[in-house]
C-alpha cells in the first residue's frame, strides 16, 4: 500500500512539472479516439440501416404498356390473363415460397406516386396514366433471394422489366462505408501521434528526474518503484483523453444522430446514445493499452535501472 501511495504521489508531482506535455497528450488522445468513436457509430448506423432497408427491399415487376418497346414486350400491352398468371405465381406458384407479401399498383396509382415525387418537374404536367406501367411490388422473406424472383419473372409474358433497390442501396452503403474507412484512417494517424507524444512526454519526464531516479537506485528501490510513476503518468493522460472522447461520442450519438438527424430524415431509424455506451469501454481500453505499452517501452529504453 505504501508503495502504491508513493508511486501515485510521484505521478502527481511529475504531472505538475509537465503540465503542457500532459495536456498535449490528453488533447491528441481525445481527438484521435473521438474519430474512432465516430467511425464506430457510423458503422453501427450503417449496419442498422442495412438491416432496416433490406427488410423493406422491394422487387418491382413492371408490366407491359402500349408504349413499351417491341423487344421487351413482343406481344404488346399486358393482358388480363397474363396479369392473373403473374398474380397466381405470387400466391401459389413457383415464386410464392419466396414472397412475404405483395401489392398491385395500377397505372393511376403509379401516376399519383410519380406526381407526388416530381411536383416541380416540367415533365409532370405532360405525363398521363397510360404512360405509367402497372406493377407488382413484392416483399421477400429473405431479401438476399431477390435474384431468384427476378429470374422467375424476367421472361414471363406481359412483364417489361423487373427491378429492385439492391444496386441503389449498395451504392449508398459503399459511400457510407467509405466515410467510415476515412474516419478510421484519420483516427489511426492520430493514435500514432498520441503514442509518440506519450513516449516523448515520458522520455522528457525521465530526463528531468534522472537525479532522483539515480538516488533511488542507490538506496535499493525496485525497478517497479522507479518505473511505476512514469507509466502511471502516461496512462493517466491517455485515460483522461479517452474519457473526453467518450463524452464526445455520447454527444454525437445523442444530439447529432438521435435528435437532429432523426428530425431531418424521419424515414430512417437512427441510433442514439444507448449505442454509444457499447463503444465507450472500448475507447478507454484502447487508450489504456496504448499508454501502458508506450510508457513501459520508453521507460525500459531511456531509464536504466
Summarize the structure.
The protein has 305 residues and is an alpha+beta fold.
General description of the model:
- With 305 residues, this protein is of the alpha+beta class.
- It has two domains: 2-53 and 170-302, no CATH class; 58-164, Alpha-Beta Plaits (2-Layer Sandwich).
- It has helices spanning 2-17, 19-55, 80-91, 107-117, 146-154, 166-208, 210-218, 223-264, 273-302; strands at residues 58-63, 99-105, 135-140, 159-164.
- Strands 2-3-1-4 form a four-stranded antiparallel sheet.
- Helix 2 packs across helix 8, helix 2 runs antiparallel to helix 9 and helix 6 runs parallel beside helix 9 (273-302).
- The radius of gyration is 32 Å and the shape is rod-shaped.
- The model has no long low-confidence stretch (mean pLDDT 80).
Q: Uncertain runs with pLDDT below 50, 5 residues or more?
A: none
Q: Gyration radius, to the nearest Å?
A: 32 Å
The number of domains is 2
Strand content: 5-15%
Secondary-structure-based class equals alpha+beta
Number of β-strand runs: 4
Q: What is the arithmetic mean of pLDDT? A: 80
Largest sheet features: 4 strands, antiparallel
Strand arrangement, largest sheet? 2-3-1-4
User: Which overall shape is indicated by the principal axes computed on the Cα atoms?
Assistant: rod-shaped
Could you state the order of secondary-structure elements as H and E? HHEHEHEHEHHHH
Tell me roughly what share of residues is in helical segments: 55-70%
Ends distance: 22 Å
Discrete helix count: 9
Domain FtsX extracellular: 57-162
InterPro entries: ABC3_permease_C, FtsX, FtsX_actino, FtsX_ECD
Main location: membrane
Domain ABC3 transporter permease C-terminal: 185-303
Amino acid at each position: 500500500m505504501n508503495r502504491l501511495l508513493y508511486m501515485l504521489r510521484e505521478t502527481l508531482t511529475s504531472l505538475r512539472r509537465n503540465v503542457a506535455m500532459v495536456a498535449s497528450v490528453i488533447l491528441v488522445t481525445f481527438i484521435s479516439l473521438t474519430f474512432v468513436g465516430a467511425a464506430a457509430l457510423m458503422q453501427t448506423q450503417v449496419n442498422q440501416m442495412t438491416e432496416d432497408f433490406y427488410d423493406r427491399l422491394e422487387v418491382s415487376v413492371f408490366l407491359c404498356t402500349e408504349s413499351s418497346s417491341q423487344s421487351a414486350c413482343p406481344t404488346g400491352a399486358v393482358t388480363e390473363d397474363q396479369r392473373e398468371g403473374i398474380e397466381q405465381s405470387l400466391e401459389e406458384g413457383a415464386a410464392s415460397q419466396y414472397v412475404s407479401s405483395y401489392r398491385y399498383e395500377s397505372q393511376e396509382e403509379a401516376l399519383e406516386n410519380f406526381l407526388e415525387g416530381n411536383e416541380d418537374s416540367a415533365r409532370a404536367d405532360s405525363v398521363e396514366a397510360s404512360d405509367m406501367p402497372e406493377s407488382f411490388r413484392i416483399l421477400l422473406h429473405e431479401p438476399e433471394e431477390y435474384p431468384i424472383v427476378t429470374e422467375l419473372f424476367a421472361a414471363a409474358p406481359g412483364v417489361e422489366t423487373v427491378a429492385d433497390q439492391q444496386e441503389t442501396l449498395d451504392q449508398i452503403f459503399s459511400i457510407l462505408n467509405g466515410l467510415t474507412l476515412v474516419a478510421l484512417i484519420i483516427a489511426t494517424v492520430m493514435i500514432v501521434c498520441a503514442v509518440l507524444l506519450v513516449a516523448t512526454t515520458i522520455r522528457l519526464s525521465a530526463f528531468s528526474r534522472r537525479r532522483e531516479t539515480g538516488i533511488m537506485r542507490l538506496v535499493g528501490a525496485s525497478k517497479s518503484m522507479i518505473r511505476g510513476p512514469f507509466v502511471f503518468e502516461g496512462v493517466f493522460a491517455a485515460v483522461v483523453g479517452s474519457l473526453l472522447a467518450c463524452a464526445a461520442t455520447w454527444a454525437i450519438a445523442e444530439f447529432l444522430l438521435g435528435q437532429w438527424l432523426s428530425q431531418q430524415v424521419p424515414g430512417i431509424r437512427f441510433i442514439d446514445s444507448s449505442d454509444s455506451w457499447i463503444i465507450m469501454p472500448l475507447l478507454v481500453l484502447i487508450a489504456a493499452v496504448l499508454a501502458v505499452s508506450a510508457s513501459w517501452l520508453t521507460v525500459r529504453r531511456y531509464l536504466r535501472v
